[in-house]
From TrEMBL:
EC number: 1.1.1.-
Protein name, as recorded: SDR family NAD(P)-dependent oxidoreductase
GO molecular function: oxidoreductase activity
Keywords for this protein: Lipid metabolism, NAD, Oxidoreductase, Steroid metabolism
Family: Belongs to the short-chain dehydrogenases/reductases (SDR) family.
Pfam families, per the entry: adh_short_C2
Domain of life: Bacteria
Length: 294
């Protein structure tokens, strides 16, 4: 029996009309699941329902910070497909910019409502439906910014470490219902979230994602930019019976970017000490060569 098979499973994916969410929707369907998609992007979401057909995918325009809209999305899994087995709390944006001195509290609240509170709400709303099914899997999108500074704005980073720790605590509380809860920490994934967080129109942000895909490889030890499918495959694994003994974990999927600074994996980089001294790797090689000749 293929434990990655999701036949008969029903999933809800928030933020499923683009980026990581879209890749996850496509992957879950490929593995046999039926999917309910929530997103604020009505045109893209409706196109998804047309593409896969209402017998496989349902779309509901959803602002996950709105309790009534989120509850309607969760409920749709039962009315459309008979229940809920998988929840991917993924909707988000790049977070309010600015350091602690500049931060506007309204922006802070909006970021936390979207990136953290909506994860709490979605999880809570999923529990009754998953209990009816005898269990389920909840997967939440965290970030590598939860474990290191410098990857994202302050607000985003704080929210994402909250998501990871919430997932761990929820896993303990919900284990008695056979509901597993995990989070994923994506690294540098080429999606429109970067352009959107800069205030660019969605169409321009989508184009920027293509540029990031080409330019980001040099940032990664693994030599390529992350793709939505890289995260989607981890979601599918955590949603499946193959991960039946995995709960309370925060799993990093980042191409190795958090293994260390660039000089730790790129021999062409001189490292912080040489940089501070103003010495290039080429100069080091020249000094070593001169030393060997003397």
């Amino acid at each position: 029996m293929d434990k990655r098979n999701l036949d008969g499973k029903v999933a809800v994916v928030t933020g499923g009309a683009s980026g990581i969410g879209l890749s996850t929707v496509e992957t879950l369907i490929e593995y046999g699941a039926k999917v309910v998609v929530g997103d604020i992007q009505a045109e893209k979401g409706s196109a998804l329902e047309t593409r896969f057909g209402p017998e496989t995918l349902r779309f509901l325009q959803t602002d996950v910070t709105n309790e009534d809209q989120l509850q309607s999305l969760i409920n749709l899994s039962e009315t459309a497909f008979g229940g809920l087995d998988i929840l991917f709390n993924n909707a988000g944006h790049g977070g309010a910019p600015g350091n602690i001195e500049e931060l506007a509290w309204d922006d802070y609240d909006q970021t936390m409502d979207l990136l953290l509170k909506a994860v709490f709400m979605g999880t809570q709303m999923a529990i009754p439906l998953m209990k009816k099914r005898g269990g389920g899997s909840i997967i939440n999108t965290s970030s590598v910014s939860a474990i290191s500074a410098g990857y994202a704005p302050l607000t985003y980073s704080v929210a994402k470490i909250g998501v990871a720790h919430f997932s761990r605590i929820a896993a303990g509380q919900l284990a008695k219902y056979k509901i597993r809860v995990n989070s994923i920490r994506p690294g540098f994934i080429a999606t429109s979230i970067f352009g959107a967080s800069m205030g660019l129109p969605r169409a321009v942000a989508d184009q920027m994602a293509e540029q990031l895909s080409q330019a980001g490889a040099k940032m990664q030890p693994i030599g390529r930019t992350g793709e939505g499918r890289d995260i989607a495959e981890m979601v599918a694994f955590l949603a499946s019976d193959a991960a039946g003994f995995v709960t309370g974990e925060s799993i990093t999927v980042d191409g190795g970017i958090t293994t260390g600074p660039p000089h730790s994996w790129n021999e062409e980089m001189g490292g912080p000490l040489l940089e501070a001294l103003g010495i290039t790797p080429e100069q080091v090689e020249a000094m070593m060569a001169a030393s060997a000749e003397s």
